[in-house]
Every structure is written in structure tokens, then in C-alpha cells.
Fold this sequence. Notes:
The structure holds three protein chains of three kinds. By secondary structure, chain A is mostly helical. Helix content of chain A is 73%, strand content 0%.
Amino acid sequence: MARRLAFWLGGGLTSALVLTALLGAVWTPYPIDAVAVVERLQAPSPLHPFGTDQLGRDMLSLLMAGAGTSLLVAAAAVAAGAGFGVPLGLLAAFRGGVADEAVMRLSDLALAFPALLTAAMIAATYGPGVLDAVVAIAIFNVPVFARLARSLALPLTGRAFVQAGYLAGKDALGVVVVHVLPNVASLLVVQAAIQLAFALLAEASLSYLGLGVQPPGASWGRMLGEAQTYMRLAPHVVLFPGLAIVLAVMGLNLLGDGLRDRLDPRLWEGS
Amino acid sequence: MTGPLLRIEGLTKRYRPPSPLPFLNGPPRTVLDAASFTLAPGEALGIVGGSGSGKSTLALCGVGLLRPDAGRVVFAGRDVTGERAPPGMQMVFQDPKASLDPRRRIAAIVGEPLRPAKGEREGLVAEALGEVGLDPAVGGRLPHELSGGQRQRVAIARALVARPRLVWLDEPVSALDVSVQAQVLALLWSLRERHGLAYILISHDLAVVARTTERLVVMEGGRIVEAGTTAEVLARPCHPYTQTLLDAVLPFDPKAAKARLERFRRDRPRGA
Amino acid sequence: MSLLEVRGLRLDLPAPSGAIRVLRGVDLSIEPGGSLAVVGESGAGKSMLALTLLGLQPEGADVRGSIRLLGRECVGIGDRAMRRMRGGGIAMVFQEPQGALNPVMTIGRQVAEGPRRRGLGRGAARALAGEALARVGLDPARYPLDLYPHQLSGGQRQRVMIALCLAMRPKLLVADEPTTALDATVQAGVLALLRDLAEGEGMGLLLVTHDLAVAAAMTERVAVLYAGHIVETGPTAAVFARLAHPYTRALAAARPGLDGGGGVPIGGRMPSPRNVPPGCPFAPRCPRADDRCRAEMPPLAAGADGHAVACFHPHGRGT
């Protein structure tokens, strides 16, 4: 029962996040670059339900626009991470030997660098920006997916149905695509949801530090970073972006857990 | 054609036990040691032995799922050593639960060995399912919806759909109940007659092999320790291990069966 | 007093589509030191019967009837009382020793666990474990107590499992397909050991198997289970001499023999316990069945020699 609740709650929060992001891309109550210094740091009111920030911009509009940025950066980074990581992991599992050793040691190396440090290095070389954040977070995601794909695929390499695939005339690539990927996909999807939560948080941290999204783009992390000086004066300027981040991360994590229980490969047991 | 369908020459496979440290693996262990035999077209050969006798390794090397360290596999006059599933050769695995992809439908599983010629595909799959005594309607189901016996029929249909000349049967019935075993064995042998198939039947149970094969190979510790016609080997076993395998087939009469077990009580067989 | 006395045992498993009727009125008994084989195909309910005897039936199962172990009723006594009963009275050897042994615990500790739980000191329990392992042919001189299960072969692991049961000094040993996962030659060794122990220790033995020949070699009495019913039971010699029930006879004919005989398949399949037809469950596959068989279940009628058959048209002696 609690598990189903987690799934629905996570699914609900995540859907809300995606809908907000989609809406924010086409319409916000106020333009997000409408600076009005006279209206700065207003408390929530019917006119501005979440108040205004230190430049007098509508917080609700900023949050709606920021949802899109955050989600896009996180999704792009996770997609890139899975796109490179899963094939590498499968290659390691099915080739073994030197390929396996190389992929795993490179994974160790990539994991040894914190995403923040990587981002700082990329920013120092190419200047900060959205792409910088995506690349830094993706680099952190590649080994996560490579390791998971490898460990999920490894026990399948010796399975009779995989061998039967070879006997049916498939080559290694064919066997991986037809027999291995579908059998490991569900757990990879679960991991993707959880990685999305991590990536969202990483994006917020990078933008908070000024390494991610640059003005005038909206980002929850940057909202937090720029507003923190006014925290005492008007707590809502940090409360709402913070709450948005917490809810989004929690939603994705719950969704991941819920999915794990749902997609549990029960088919394996059938007796 | 006059030559043998399959010739196995000095097939050898070694494994290196893995070690936690790189480059420090232990000495290789020979699990298959210079195995040789031939098989005529349409012949049925039995390979018996316990676990660790190398019989499954022999099969995997034979169909090319493992690359042998030495020796040759010559199939229909062509050297196919290390070639995965050479055309005309197929295999049925022991545990149908493991050998059928749990996420694919039966029709897709059975049709997998067929080359893309889409038009006939459905017809061939339905025909193959019919041949193994399954309603073609099971094509839409998933493996876990079938019983053990039905799953093994699906595996047999998959092996036969591309019309092979030789099928390796690696313990095809040992995961099944006695009553279902008889069904599957009877099916295998009626298919063999209809299509003139050659079989290599691998089993740890002499009784399964005795009924159905013309020649017999006994393996122990990676080596072939005895070979001959099935009738000969059963009537006059030369190697002590063959005798142990014979003794392990319990007679059906309660008194004789109880007396037989006495033999295993006094001289405990190796490995047990 | 019987060691085990089962009367009218029924077991239903709840399912969304209506209860699954697994056992439908099973009677059996074992005298102290006696042995009984329950023979049946997968799906007949034989494993569920074994688990139910130990009180290990699945959560939510509905058990009715009576199971008396050493004269004490076991149905409906609750988990804790049943656990106590298992500790001293009844132990079980499973089909797959891999699943039943803890991979990260030495075999010595696992075998000693039962005696430890009975309150024996560490040293005494360890000595007892060594003794039990020696009894099953794993002499501690060659197979030290601190080996791990993965260091042993399948047959040796099954011997450890048997030693584990032995150390609990049960009055009744239940063995569910103890050798199905093993090679033929190893099978014979483990079976010989089991019978040896049952006789030597005066333990009762309940053996569950799908192979009539194993029953022939192992036990004094046999019960053939089909679709949750016992269809034939009696002294092993009498049952094998007559093979009175058409199902028993078909099972016997299915088994391949060295002489090239046997291997006759039984047509059709056992009815699903979700959807059992009225009458004798074997009737749809039975060459002798008539309208009466399809309408009512024949009672298990015992003859003078204790050989009982549930069939309206049993095979006679020598037919």
C-alpha cells in the first residue's frame, strides 16, 4: 500500500513538474525580464501569489520558467549519460577482458571527479553556460549507467536464452538489442528517474554557484543564489525556489522507487 | 553423400580459474580433453556423464558457443570450428525456463532462427508449433504462461524451424517430470523420423539415452572413457564409470531397487 | 501411536479468480521409523503437502483437516507452537540445497545452529555438527567444518542439508525431491544415505518424488497423489506388483528403462487446481473411464493387504 502511494505521489509530483515546465515555456503571468525595482521584495499577494524578487520580478513566473530550464538541463544530462553509459556497460559485459577493464577503470576515474569540480574546470576553459552544466552532469552520469548496465547484463551473458539467440544466427549486437536490452530496460528506467533527481539537484547547485544557467535565463538554483542576501528581509525569495527543488527531487525519487516495485521483473519466476 | 555428417577431432577446452588479482590467474584446468568422434547423417548418438565430465562443454564447443583451445569441428565436410551455429546445426538446452527469453512472445521466439522472408514466416512458425503438438494460438503468449513441458516443446520448435540436419540436445528432459519426459522424448523421436535428423543426446541418465540412441559415448573428467554401439556398451561395459552409471539406473522392482541402493551405500561413488 | 497421522487434509490457496484447491482430502500415516513415498507429477500438490506438514504453507492458505504429529494436533496451533514442533519432531530436506543453505556461513555453523537453538553450548553443538557431517559421509578430517557451501559439489551440499536435519534429531524427516537436481550417480548415493540414516536412527521418512523407481528403492509404503487426491496407496511391494490405478500404471510405463522398454507418454495434462472437473480427476486422460468416473469421485477403497485404490475400474493382479 505504501509503495503504491509512493508511486502515485511521485508520479503526481513529476507530472506537475513537467506540466509547469511546459506551461512556463509558452506563458507566464508576467514577463520574466520585467524588472520593476519599485515592486522589489514584495510579500505574496493576490497580484503576485509567490511575491516578487529583489528586482521586482514575479516569483511565480520565474519559477515556472525555471522549471523548464532545470528539467531540460537535467534530462539532457541524464539522456547523454545513459546514451553513452549503457552501450559502454553492455560492451564491457559482453566483450569482457580489456574492453571491460578499460570501461570500468574509466568509470572509476570519472566518478572520482565531483561534478562541481568538472563544471568549474569546463567553465574556466569555455566560460560558464547551460551547456557547461549539461556536460558536467552528463560526465557524472555516464559511469553510473555504465556500471549498472554492466552488472545487469553480466548475469545474462551466460543465460541459455542469450545463447539461443546466437544459435538463431544473431551476432553480439543483435543479441544485445533483442534479448539483453529489453530485459534490463526496466531497471535502467528506474535508475534514470533517480539520476534525474540527482541531476536536478546538481543543476541547481551549479547555477547557484553561477556556473550553470546565465542571465537572463531563469533557474531555481540561480534564484536561490542571487536572493540569499535578502533572505532575512524577505524569506519567500529563497523559500519558494528551495521548496520547488525539494518537491521536484522528492517526486522523481518516489517515482523511481515506485517504478522499481512495479517493474520488478516478475516474469523471471513464472514456474 | 558418404562421409560423416559431423567429425569432432581432438576437441580440447581449458579454463583459467579467475583470480582476484589481474595477470595472476592460476594454471588452466582442462575441462575437455581431446574428444573425438564422428556422426553419420541421420544417426543418434548419446553422450553420458556426470556434472564436470565435460559433456556440456563439448556441446558448446560443437555448436560454436565456446571456442575450443585445440581440435576441429567438421560439419558436412566444412571446417566450422569456432563458428557460431553453422547453418544446419541447432541445439536444445536443458532448462526451457532459462532458454526462452522471458519478455518475448512464443511466435517471436520460435521464428527467431528464420531469415527475414516475412511472408512465409507466420506459416512456418505455425507449422513448427503444430509439429511439436502445440496449438498455434500459443504464439501470442509469453513463456511464463506455459507449463515446463510446453516450454520445452517451444524450444524444440525453435530448433527445428530452420530445418537443421543435426540437433544437439543438452539434457533436454532432465528438468521435467517423468511423465512429461516421456512425452518430450517421444516427440523428439517422431520428429527425427519425419525429418531424417541426426541427434546428439546428452544426459546424465543412461536410461534416457539407452532407449533412443544407436551409439554411445561415456565421458568422465573431460575425457571420453568408453564408446561403442549403445547395445554393446550397455551389455558389456568396459569402464568402471560406465558400470556406475548403469548401476545408478534404479530397477523398477522394489526388492531389486532396494538391493541396488546397497551397492551405493558400501562403495560411495566419487564426487557424491 | 502413529508418528504422523493425516486425516482429510485440505488446502486452499486464495486467488483473485476463486480459491485454488491444492489438496482435496488427503489421508496418510507413518508409523515410528516407517517410511512413505508420496509420488506425483508437478502440480499434483505433493510439495505443498510436504510444506503443510511442517506448517510452512504459504501465507493466507486455508488448511482444514487434521495433522497429528506424535499424537499432537498441528492444524491451527499457530506459528510459535509449530516452530517448537519443527525443532524437535520434524525436519525437511529441500530439492535445491543451494537455496536452503546460507552461502556466507560455514557448514559447521549451519549444522550446529539447530543444536545451539536447543540450548547446547558452542563446543558441544560443534562436536555434534562434526558427528552429523561424518554420518552423512563428510568426514571433518577431509571436509573441515569451516568450509563454505560453494566449496562443495551439489551432492555434498545435499549431504550438508541432511546433516543439518540430522543434528536436530527429528522423529520424522521430510525430503522433497532431494535428488532431482543431482546427477544420476550422485542421486543414488544420496538416496542410499537417506535410507541408511532413516533405518539407523529409527527416523520416519516421508519422501516426495515424481519418480516411481525412487519410491521403489526407498520406502515401505507409497501413496500416489494426483490433482490433490491420493489415488492409490499401500505397501510398496503390493502397489508395484499390481499397479492398480490406471494413473499409477501410466506413470510406470512413462519411465524409460535400460532394456529399451517404457517411455510411453501419458496423453493430456493434469487438470488445473483452479478448475477441477467433477468426478475422478484422471478420467479425462484415462482409457478405462466411463460416465460414472466423470460424474463422481471414486472412494479410496482398501483391500485386505492395506492396498487402497480410488478407482471404479482398477487393474487386477497381473492384468
